[in-house]
Design goal:
Elements (H helix, E strand, L loop, with lengths): L12 E4 L18 E6 L17 E7 L11 E2 L10 E2 L12 E14 L2 E7 L8 E7 L2 H4 L19 E3 L1 H14 L3 H10 L15 E5 L2 E7 L4 E8 L4
Parallel strand pairs: 9-12
Antiparallel strand pairs: 1-2, 1-8, 2-7, 3-6, 3-8, 4-5, 6-7, 10-11, 11-12
Pfam families: TrmO_C, TrmO_N
GO molecular function, one term: methyltransferase activity
InterPro entries: TrmO-like_N (IPR023370), TrmO_C (IPR041369), UPF0066_cons_site (IPR023368), YaeB-like (IPR040372), YaeB-like_sf (IPR036413), YaeB_N_sf (IPR036414)
Length: about 240
């Protein structure tokens, strides 16, 4: 087969998530209880297309790394999990910089909504940027997709910081108000994201540096030291 073969693909839908920038998104699905919605688009927005999916507790989302699709790829990458100092072959990682920028995420299916000619899948645990194109949806099959004997020595367990997350008085007040407005457990979600340590590996030694992640249109400023994670403030982005 010629390596010039064109394989036709199109998005069947797009995800709507509170992540509007890459920084801060957990590097794997299921690490934060963030709710998102997959909106199917015609001709795939059909109740028939999702018939039976309501019996699934979890589904696979096959998607395009749209934010990095034009950045090219390299045979080796520096995974953040290894501190950004060790190179691995791209196929031994889940880097978005791939020959074909395709990703795979397992998410919890919370519900299915069919509204006229629109179909929505409510999901939890998605690690996807808002607007990410979805190529396919597949049911998660526990008997074949869960392999307790599987091993990968370089990523054998979930890595989270073992630190307390402390909200300043200002941040706590804002968080409580925004949680009520959004009807979301915002403090828990922020804590889950920050315990995944979104900082670049080469800057983790700077305990005074203040970072910001964007969630639900709010800028969340934080600092991480060896003793604790400080959530300093939550404020709307100026453009919102």
């Amino acid at each position: 087969m010629s390596d010039q073969t064109t394989l036709p693909m199109q998005a069947i839908g797009y995800i709507h998530s509170p992540f509007d920038e890459k920084f801060g998104i957990p590097r794997q699905p299921g690490l934060a209880s963030i709710r998102a919605q997959v909106e199917l688009v015609p001709p795939f927005a059909s109740p028939d297309a999702v018939r039976g999916l309501e019996h699934c507790s979890h589904i696979w989302l096959v998607f395009i790394f749209s934010a990095t699709a034009d950045k090219g790829w390299s045979p080796t990458v520096r995974p953040p999990r290894l501190g950004g100092n060790q190179r691995l072959g791209v196929f031994a990682t889940r880097s978005p910089f791939r020959p074909n920028p395709i990703g795979l995420s397992c998410v919890r299916l919370v519900g299915i909504r069919c509204e006229g000619e629109r179909v929505w899948l409510d999901v939890e645990g998605a690690d996807l940027l808002d607007g990410t194109p979805i190529l396919d949806i597949k049911p998660y099959l526990p008997y074949s997709d869960s392999l307790p004997e599987a091993e990968f020595a370089l990523a054998s367990r979930i890595e989270r910081l073992a630190l307390p997350v402390v909200f300043s008085a200002e941040a706590e007040t804002a968080c409580s108000r925004i949680s009520d407005e959004l009807n979301q457990p915002l403090a828990r979600q922020i804590s889950e994201i920050l315990l995944c340590d979104p900082r670049p590996a080469y800057k983790k030694g700077d305990s005074e540096r203040i970072y910001g992640i964007s969630l639900y249109g709010f800028n969340i400023r934080f600092r991480i030291s060896s003793e604790q994670i400080d959530v300093l403030s939550l404020a709307p982005h100026p453009e919102t």
